[in-house]
């Protein structure tokens, strides 16, 4: 085979890969429009959206560096179909304030509210409560009014009572008893303002839950829904997948891959059903709503689209720059959110990178409620 023939084959492979990549990325852009139980293939592509978008950028650059630059149109079209996703992780609005410009040492005037959501991951089950103390100090300096934590629990060295003492600055709280949360991952809300009508929302066949409560401001009431939705189980199932793929038997490799993908899909269905439950609560609320937490869902997901149809994504209403909230997987994943009713005005939204024994970053937002 001559040099020209090799180049032709190589070019043909690139064209085929570009066509397949474009088709997959366009299909992934529709994943949020369908309940995962009705769209297996599309929902799985939705989970791969960050990687697909990166591959499209690579393909676009490759074709622009060749003589056949017109092929770069395909990945550009694929990126165009995912504009909604890109706007959910990139915001260029220079008018939005940044944390350094805030008057964190002074209390906000009436009508302003600052909220944080953070999956603290049990603070790494540390002995001294170092991370919890540092977090409490940081949030107090930031002037945060309402704390929404997921996986908030003590251990035999640093008990739940000790944790509650650390966050004593926020004197009101909905901290469920151990008996109420022994079958679910603990979830709490702390507040500088009184809390009423708090209740846990449990989900079938899941250790995850949501916590609803009404925060009584001076002349207003805002409903907080703190959520911790079904995990993807990627970390839990990755070891099993790697062992299966290491097996010499091709049938076992295929079985391991199917099992891994099926687990992702089943958890995607659970998250979608949990989202439907949350949306009903939002629709029934007599008060403006802030729905936040660890949704374990990308902006391409059914969960994000459903929530964003009812509420506003705080990052899109008042954020800037690049947004991710999961510290691993090359910082490609935005899975923690603060959504708010349109009647609440977003002022700024950001996610600082804190090294406090959690695989998540906290998300903070300031709003004006009147």
What keyword list fits this structure?
six-stranded mixed beta sheet, alpha+beta, 2 domains, elongated, single chain, 370 residues, 14 strands, Deoxyribonuclease I, Chain A
Secondary-structure topology with pairs:
Blueprint: H1 3-28, H2 40-47, H3 49-64, H4 73-81, H5 83-89, E1 90-91, E2 112-119, H6 130-141, E3 146-150, H7 160-166, E4 172-174, H8 178-181, E5 187-191, E6 195-202, E7 209-216, E8 221-228, H9 234-246, H10 250-284, E9 289-294, H11 302-310, E10 312-313, H12 314-318, E11 321-322, E12 336-340, E13 345-350, E14 363-368
Parallel strand pairs: 2-3, 8-9
Antiparallel strand pairs: 1-11, 2-14, 3-5, 4-5, 6-7, 7-8, 9-12, 10-12, 13-14
Helix pairs in contact: 1-2, 1-3, 1-4, 3-4, 9-10, 10-11
Which secondary-structure class do the elements indicate? alpha+beta
Report the oligomer. Answer: single chain
Helix content: 40-55%
Number of domains: 2
Order of helices and strands: HHHHHEEHEHEHEEEEHHEHEHEEEE
| Strand adjacency order, main sheet | 4-5-3-2-14-13
End-to-end Cα distance: 74 Å
pLDDT average, as an integer? Answer: 89
Would you write up a description of this structure?
The protein is α+β, with helices and mostly antiparallel strands and 370 residues long. The protein folds into two domains: 3-81; 99-236 and 242-368, Endonuclease/exonuclease/phosphatase (Deoxyribonuclease I, Chain A, 4-Layer Sandwich), CATH 3.60.10.10. The protein contains twelve helices and 14 strands. The protein has helices at residues 3-28, 40-47, 49-64, 73-81, 83-89, 130-141, 160-166, 178-181, 234-246, 250-284, 302-310, 314-318, and strands at 90-91, 112-119, 146-150, 172-174, 187-191, 195-202, 209-216, 221-228, 289-294, 312-313, 321-322, 336-340, 345-350, 363-368. The strands form three sheets. The chain has a six-stranded mixed β-sheet. It has a six-stranded mixed β-sheet with strand order 6-7-8-9-12-10. A two-stranded antiparallel sheet has the order 1-11. α6 links the parallel β2 (112-119) and β3 (146-150). α1 runs antiparallel to α3 and α9 packs antiparallel against α10. The protein is elongated and about 75 Å long. Mean pLDDT is 89; it is low at 100-104.
């Amino acid at each position: 085979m001559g040099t020209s023939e090799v180049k032709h084959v190589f070019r043909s492979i690139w064209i085929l890969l570009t066509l397949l990549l474009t088709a997959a990325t366009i299909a992934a852009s529709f994943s949020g429009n369908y309940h995962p139980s009705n769209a297996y293939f599309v929902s799985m592509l939705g989970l791969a959206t960050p990687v697909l978008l990166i591959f499209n950028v690579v393909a676009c650059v490759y074709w622009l560096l060749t003589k056949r630059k017109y092929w770069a149109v395909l990945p550009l079209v694929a990126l165009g179909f995912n504009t909604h996703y890109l706007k959910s992780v990139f915001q260029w609005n220079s008018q939005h304030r940044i944390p350094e410009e805030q008057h964190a040492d002074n209390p906000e005037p009436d009508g302003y509210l600052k909220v944080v959501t953070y999956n603290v991951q049990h603070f790494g089950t540390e002995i001294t409560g170092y991370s919890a103390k540092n977090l409490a100090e940081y949030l107090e300096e930031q002037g945060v009014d309402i704390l929404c934590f997921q996986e908030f629990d003590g251990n035999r060295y640093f008990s739940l009572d000790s944790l509650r003492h650390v966050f004593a600055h926020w004197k009101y709280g909905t901290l469920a008893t151990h008996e109420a949360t022994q079958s679910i991952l603990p979830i709490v809300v702390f507040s500088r303002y009184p809390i009423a009508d708090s209740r846990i929302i449990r989900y079938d066949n899941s250790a995850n839950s949501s916590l609803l409560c009404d925060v009584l401001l001076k002349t207003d009431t805002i409903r907080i829904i703190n959520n911790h939705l079904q995990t993807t189980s990627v970390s839990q199932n990755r070891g099993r997948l790697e062992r299966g793929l290491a097996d010499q038997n091709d049938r076992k490799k295929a079985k391991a891959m199917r099992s891994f993908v099926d687990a992702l899909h089943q958890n995607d269905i659970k998250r979608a059903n949990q989202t439907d439950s949350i949306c009903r609560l939002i629709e029934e609320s007599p008060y403006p709503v802030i729905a936040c937490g660890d949704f374990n869902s990308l902006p391409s997901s059914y969960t994000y689209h459903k929530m964003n149809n009812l509420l506003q994504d705080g990052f899109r209403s008042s954020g800037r720059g690049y947004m991710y909230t999961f510290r691993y997987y090359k910082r490609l994943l935005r899975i923690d959110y603060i959504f708010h009713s349109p009647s609440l005005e977003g002022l700024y939204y950001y996610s600082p990178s804190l090294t406090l024994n959690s695989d998540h970053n906290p998300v903070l937002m300031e709003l004006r409620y009147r």
